[in-house]
Amino acid sequence: MNQPTPAIVAQAAVRRLPRAALLLFCLAYVLPGFVWRDPWRSADITAFGYMLELAGNSTSWLDPRLMGQQPDVNALLPYWLGAWALKLAPGWIAPDFAARLPFMALLTLTLAAVWQGIYYLARSPLAQPVAFAFGGEARPTDYARAMADGGLLAFIACLGLAQLSHETTPAVAQLCFSALAFYAVAAMPYRRFGPILAGTAALLGLTLSGAPAMAVLFGLGSMVIHLLDRSHTSREDGPPMRWDRRWAWGIALLTLMAAGLATALDLWHWRIELPPLKWDIWHGLGSLLLWFTWPAWPLVLWTLWRWRHQLFSTHVRRHLALPLWFALVTVAATLVTPASDRALLLALPSLATLAAFALPTLERNVSALIDWFTLLFFTGCAFIIWVVWIAMQTGFPPQPAANVARLAPGFEAGFTLLPFVFASLATLAWAWLVKWRVGRHRAAIWKSLVLPAGGAALCWLLLTTLWMPLLDFARSYEPLVRRVEAVVKPAECIETFGLKPGLYTAFRFYSPLLLKAAGTSKGCAWLVIDKDASFMLPGVVNPAQWREHQTLGHPREGEEDLVIYQRASRAGF
Fold it and tell me: C-alpha distances in angstroms, 325 versus 3, 225, 266, 318?
């Protein structure tokens, strides 16, 4: 006989994760990566550059430009948030940290929306566990709460979330608004004003964050799912609520508003690129899917298998159809957009939801396999991080110290007490967590994801405390700017040509040198150009007026080579 659901859960298995522990854990994940660091190269510092331009009223708020260039992502709202933070922050807060404050709030809101979305989907009648003949099955609210705890742990455990969610880029805003849209549709049968506000903010926010097509697809799919889902639901604090067609028309209206806003602001810019049929391209995409979504994807496959009868039945299961639609849309976007990792980031809330529904169906030996693999993997990673840090401080063991010197020539390590204290406390907490997990106590369905989430958070915290000076040296433009300053000083200005927007921002942020476009000033004795743009230089300046002085690169070999020219009259010619 087919069971109505594969979930067989007793009340004893749905005890809640202590709220204080969960909140502290989320805080320990959000803060590292936003504090104690410089703006990192490429997308992070480039986005910061657009925020600086807006805060200084040097560009249009509806058409932000940096060096005359539009952003790669046709977004507005993320740059507005950073610029507003720069304007409102007091002077004692560093500008780069002030610009990160809204994105810290966006990541925090993302975690809350993921938890709430999973909670309300698990409240669905068709998602509830099998009723026992003599009672004792999990109560709906307790079951939903435990599932939400497990789903949030799965979300935090995803390896691809760590770096991209801690940058000041439109991808963080897109992630937040995708999670809000997911929560809004999940909670519609149970709440009124919360889903309305969240849905409005989500679809309009996605549109203003450079993803209008995603907003429209999420809205259309959610409308269809709601129309097809006729299951009766019940509220926690009121009488039963029946299926209401008006919610579907409300979603359709919000989708039309998002499409209209994108049209009015000219935000429809398609960047679809079908991947060529080459092994290396598809191998790279496959590798990205595997590591970026680990450890959620094995649990997602298990969910699709164990819930297959419900998934392919004639009656729509909201708790399966909604996350599956969000996941399919974002994975498809990953395959056809250039920034595949940032597109895949939006799939993590829905994949974590599907992973959560594997928890009530996991067998004990599978759960033990997850625990042991996670324990060995993350303990090994943490051990390597500590060993390399000790080598940077003392020179022993010699091989890791030599590797750091080879990969980051010129880097000088220093000891900072506070990051060391936080790293030590995190390592002790990991040891306690492992001891708790292997101890004998009552089972909880979220236990299998405690070690993956804890291990991911531990390694991210260790990297952003012990290794942060090294990461800043390798990923920041500051070392390159300091090299250029050492050559051109005591000059007060330099002409530039062909610099990438991020490097241009770095010169503005780290150096007092006044930057002028090549060929626009006769008072600057130095010209700095990107080596890749040197072939275009004769069309901009008179080559007879300049003599090549030196070529400088980032301390990391082969990255951002700059050619420095000195004006011929100053060079003694």
Answer: 25, 9, 27, 10
- Residues 205 and 469: their CA atoms lie apart, in Å, by 35
Closest residue by Cα to residue 512 from 529, 490, 531, 530: 490
Q: What is the pLDDT of residues 391-445, one digit of tens each?
A: 999 999 999 999 999 989 989 999 999 999 999 999 999 999 999 887 766 678 9
Using pLDDT thresholds of 50, 70 and 90, give the confidence band for residue 534.
Answer: confident
The encoded tokens of residue 551 equal: 């070529």
- Strands (E) in 394-518, as ranges, are 493-497, 514-517
Neighbours of 233 (CB within 10 A): 18
Mean pLDDT for the chain overall: 91
> Any idea which of 124-138, 330-344, 541-555 has the lowest mean pLDDT?
124-138
Residue 205 reports pLDDT greater than 80: yes
**The two three-digit tokens of residue 496, written as one number:** 């530039």
Closest CA to 105 of 208, 26, 194: 26
- Determine the Cα–Cα distance for residues 321 and 387; give it in Å rounded to an integer: 46
- Predicted local confidence at residue 236, as pLDDT: 44
Sequence-distant (6+) residues with CB within 8 A of 521 are 493, 495
Using DSSP, state whether 66 is helix, strand or coil.
Answer: strand
pLDDT over 70 at 249, yes or no: yes
Round to whole Å and give the CA distance between 59 and 70: 11
DSSP 536: G
Q: Which residues pair with 517 in a beta bridge?
A: 496
Q: What is the DSSP letter of 403?
A: H
SS3 of residue 142 by DSSP = helix
d(CA 452, CA 434): 11
**CB-neighbour burial class of residue 133 (10 A; exposed 0-12, middle 13-18, buried 19+):** exposed
In terms of C-beta density within 10 A (0-12 exposed, 13-18 middle, 19 or more buried), how is residue 112 classed? middle
Q: Is 302 helix (H, G, I), strand (E, B) or coil?
A: helix
Query: Is the Cβ–Cβ distance between 150 and 446 less than 8 Å?
Result: yes
Cβ burial, residue 534 (10 Å; 0-12/13-18/19+): middle
Q: What is the pLDDT of residue 571?
A: 56
Query: Which amino acid belongs to residue 277?
Result: L
The full DSSP string for 321-372 is HHHHHHHHHHHHHHHHSS-HHHHHHTTHHHHHHHHHTTGGG--HHHHHHHHH
Lowest pLDDT segment from 229-233, 248-252, 345-349? 229-233
Quick one: 523 exposed, middle or buried, by C-beta within 10 A (0-12, 13-18, 19+)? exposed
HSE-up of residue 129 (Cα within 13 Å, Cβ side): 27
pTM given for the model: 0.95
Asked if 351 contacts 327 with a C-beta cutoff of 8 angstroms, the reply is: yes
Tokens, residue 8 = 């067989």
Cα gap 14→17, rounded to integer Å: 9
